[in-house]
Amino acid sequence: MLTPELTPSHSVASSPSLPPTPDPRPLDLVIANYNESLTWLSTYSHVATVYSKGRLPPDLSIFREVMTLPNWGRESHTYLHHIVHNYDNLADVTLFLQGNIHDMNDGTPAHTDLDLDEIVGMAKNLADMPDILGSRGVHAQNQPQGGVLPLGKIHSFTDWDGVRYLPGWIERRGKGLRRSPYSPEQFWNYICNGTVDNKDPRWTTVPAEIKWTQGALFAVTRQTIQRRPRAVYERSYNYFHSLADINPEEGHYMERFWLGLFGHHGVEQRGLCVPEPVKAWTEEGENPTAEGHGAGAEDEGIFRL
């Protein structure tokens, strides 16, 4: 079923919509699609909601739903659209995936080595898995983290003053990147607290480190999404929707923010989404040098890890 977005709105609050129809289901696959072939979805296409920002898939009937969206805000705009418009009608577990999870673009390693059968099997069990977020000495690659299952490669983020891109990356692969007027620290506070002013009483200190999953591939339970008020997601969605830009730098920020946004250990209620650093996720052998975060580490094609 094709559900076009007829008139792009600058605010979700101004988008007319009917109350959600109760539709209990254990699993949704949310696919951020831009011209990629979706044959890899195979037998799971019937539980896939495809958000297309390019050419439509040739056979729409095999998917649970296909919706067209303007090509704005990278995959974050797509994920936020789904959360905001389905907040009260989410599946028990939602898998958020890009249109080609195994793409090796311009030498960048694939986001995940897992195949779809493995991913779906792990996601189905997510709600029954224990919360190990507070454990110590547990390697968290593809392990559940308090209702969140990261599916891409796990990395650390500490560059709150600005993402440190590899030399030449913007010219080589980031053409059209709209640089943000805000630092990651400011944008995090905007999402969580509605302010970019560090003098505002709503401002909260960002965690020293957050973990993120390459390619923004993750499964998350309904309860985990709903720990945050709808307003948090609406604020982010409306930002990207109003910006109406294909490649805003804030989309790269959001790729790094999702796991932290869903985290819940040590969250200050006033701050809404400021978790404490998760030591269990620290990778063994990590040894940043005095030259800066991740100097001398592997080149993942976007920035130095």
Mean pLDDT rating: 76
Give the number of domains: 1
- The SSE order reads EEEEHEHEEHHEEHHH
What does the radius of gyration come to?
18 Å
Beta-strand segment tally: 9
Question: Oligomeric state of the chains?
Answer: single chain
What is the share of helical residues?
10-25%
Shape: globular
* First and last CA, distance: 41 Å
Determine the structural class based on helices, strands and strand pairing. alpha/beta
Biased composition (Polar residues): 1-13
Region (Disordered): 1-24, 284-305
Description:
- This protein is of the alpha/beta class and 305 residues long.
- It has one domain (25-281).
- 22% of the residues lie in helices and 13% in strands.
- It has seven helices and nine strands, in the order ββββαβαββααββααα.
- The protein has helices at residues 74-85, 116-124, 169-172, 184-193, 222-225, 230-243, 249-262; strands at residues 2-4, 27-33, 48-52, 65-68, 93-98, 148-150, 154-157, 210-213, 218-221.
- The strands form two sheets. A seven-stranded mixed beta sheet has the order 1-4-3-2-5-9-6, with helices on both faces. Strands 7-8 form a two-stranded antiparallel ribbon.
- Helix 4 packs across helix 6.
- The longest helix has 14 residues, at 230-243.
- The model is unreliable at 1-10, 129-144 and 264-305 (pLDDT under 50).
